[in-house]
Write a structure and sequence with these properties.
The protein is built from 12 helices and 11 strands. Helices cover 46% and strands 13% of the residues. The protein folds into 2 domains: 236 residues, TIM Barrel, CATH 3.20.20.70; 78 residues, no CATH class. By secondary structure, the chain is α/β, with parallel strands linked by helices. It has an 8-stranded parallel β-sheet. It has a 3-stranded antiparallel β-sheet with strand order 7-11-10, with no helix packed on it. The relative contact order is 0.14. Helix 4 runs parallel beside helix 5 and helix 8 packs across helix 12. Strand 3, helix 4 and strand 4 form a beta-alpha-beta unit.
């Protein structure tokens, strides 16, 4: 049976996560909170709380609230440049969070050991083969390889290229989850057959019934096509701005203006480089909140991956996962003929 084939291909990833299917929910600030995270876990996937810029007390409350909605495993995504990273790790430890995803750069000294001490399994993003090897050597348990088709902060390489570079080399060494531009089960089947332990999806879950995203935010997703999700442009080469993929709107121009303002303050010595980067991150957090929570999809940041064109309607998480698995099984059946 093809169901057995899909189950077999996902077995390693599902066992690592403690879920029924090896589908990680992408951590999206303001969107990946208790309701969506719990819904993904309850539907057999693996939900991940997006800590983002949350202060420690807020993360503490969010983990507790998520646990009240599901008795299944879920993870927490922490940004490595967060000024309170050590305290956030300690909070995850106190709650017995089983998996922590570290995003936004190489884990700072001591963070991996601190997480290991809590018993959590560590997942990191690897945008290149050399970095993937380095992370595994440092004690990371699993990797997400995310291509530039993804929404939010992105790297420069396409998902299909990263998968070809990294999976043949490292798929046996550790569970690797593929992310970026995945909107249908056929793509999931392809990456599983290439050696992936599972996949991560964000954009596909934004319009879930359980998602708290504003109706205007969801409507923008449903109306959008792949070409509407564009990457931000870096204005000043001295300012290391990680590109962000979002639906093109007036907010895109606001970010250009924000970069110019931060660069000018850098010139005047009002900011150092670390503070400049934090200003940019705070801009995104605020712009994203305006769009997701307040529904200002014109001036806020409507972060979306290129798979947004495959989001056609608002539907329950369980139905989304069921559809993806059915598509993957059908693809595997065709491939085996």
């Amino acid at each position: 049976m093809q169901q057995d084939r899909l189950t077999a291909l996902m077995a390693r990833g599902a066992a690592f996560l403690g879920s029924e299917v090896a589908v990680l929910g992408g951590a999206m600030s303001w969107v990946s909170e208790r309701h969506l995270v719990a819904a993904i876990s309850n539907a057999g996937g693996f939900g991940v709380i997006a800590c983002g810029a949350m202060p420690p007390a807020l993360l503490d409350a969010e983990i507790a609230a998520t646990r009240a909605l599901t008795d299944r495993p879920f993870g927490v995504n922490l940004i490595t440049m967060h000024p309170d990273l050590a305290e956030l790790i300690a909070i995850c430890g106190r709650h017995g969070v089983s998996h922590v995803v570290l995003a936004g750069g190489l884990p700072p000294a001591g963070s991996i050991d601190a997480l290991k001490a809590t018993g959590a399994r560590i997942i990191c993003f690897a945008p290149a083969l050399a970095l993937a090897r380095k992370l595994l050597r440092s004690g990371v348990d699993a990797l997400v390889i995310e291509g530039m088709e993804a929404g939010g902060h992105i790297g420069p390489v396409a998902t299909s290229v990263l998968a070809q570079e990294i999976l043949p080399e490292l798929a046996e060494a550790a569970p690797i989850f593929v992310a970026g531009g995945i909107g249908r089960g056929e793509a999931i089947a392809t990456y599983l057959e290439m050696g992936a332990a599972g996949v991560q999806l964000g954009t596909r879950f934004v319009c879930a019934t359980e998602s708290i995203a504003h109706p205007a935010f969801k409507k923008a997703f449903i109306r959008a096509s792949a070409r509407d999700a564009v990457a931000s442009v870096q204005i000043d080469p001295r300012l290391p701005v990680i590109p962000v993929r979002a639906l093109k709107n007036a907010g895109t121009e606001l970010f250009t203006a924000k970069q110019r303002e931060v660069a000018a303050r850098l010139d005047k010595g009002e900011l150092d480089m670390a503070a400049a980067q934090l200003e940019i991150e705070h801009f995104w957090a605020g712009a994203l909140r305006r769009a997701v929570i307040d529904g200002d999809v014109e001036h806020g940041s409507v972060m979306a991956g290129q798979s947004v064109g495959m989001v056609k309607a608002e539907e329950p998480v369980a139905d989304i996962i069921k559809t993806l698995m059915a598509e993957a099984r059908a693809a595997l059946a065709r491939n085996s003929v």
